[in-house]
What we know:
There is one protein chain. The chain has helices spanning 16-27, 101-119, and strands at residues 2-13, 33-36, 40-41, 45-51, 62-72, 76-86, 91-98, 125-135, 140-153. The protein is an alpha+beta fold. The radius of gyration is 15 Å and the shape is flat. The two termini are 22 Å apart.
Amino acid sequence: MGIIRVVTGAAGAPTKMASYDAALADAGIHNYNLVTVSSVVPTDATVEFVGTAPDLGPAGERLTVVEARATISEVGRAAAGLGWATGPGPGLFYEATGTDADSVRSRVEAGLDAGADLREWTLDERRVEVTTADHDGEGFATALTVAVYGESDPIL
C-alpha cells in the first residue's frame, strides 16, 4: 500500500469551522476533502510521523484519513491524540480527545490494548502523538492529529 503519514495541527479562529480549517492548514492538509475511515492499518503499510504533510496532490482531491480532533470555546486546552500499533500483520489506530493531554494519551493506549486483544493480534510497535491547542477564551481553538493514507485521489 505504501505510507501512512501522521500529521498534527493546532490553531485558533473566530468560529468553530474556521479554527478547524486553520488547524488543517497547520497540518498541511487544508486543501483536500477528507474521507474518514475506521482504524485499521493495512498489512503492507508503513506508518510514519511527519508533523506537517508534504504536497499530496492537487487541491480539491480526496484524502483518506483517521482523525482525532478537539475543539473548545472556553479558556483551557484542547487535546487530540492518535496512537498506532503495528506488528507482523495489520495494525490499528486509536484516537481520543479531551482537555487533558495525559488523560487523552492514557485512553489511546488503553484503546490500542483493547483493540489488539479483541483481534488477538501481536502489535509490538506502538506510538502515540497528542496535539494540544491552548485557548484564551476568544473564539475557538482546535487541536488535531491525523493519519493520512497515501496521496490524494480525484473525486470526479
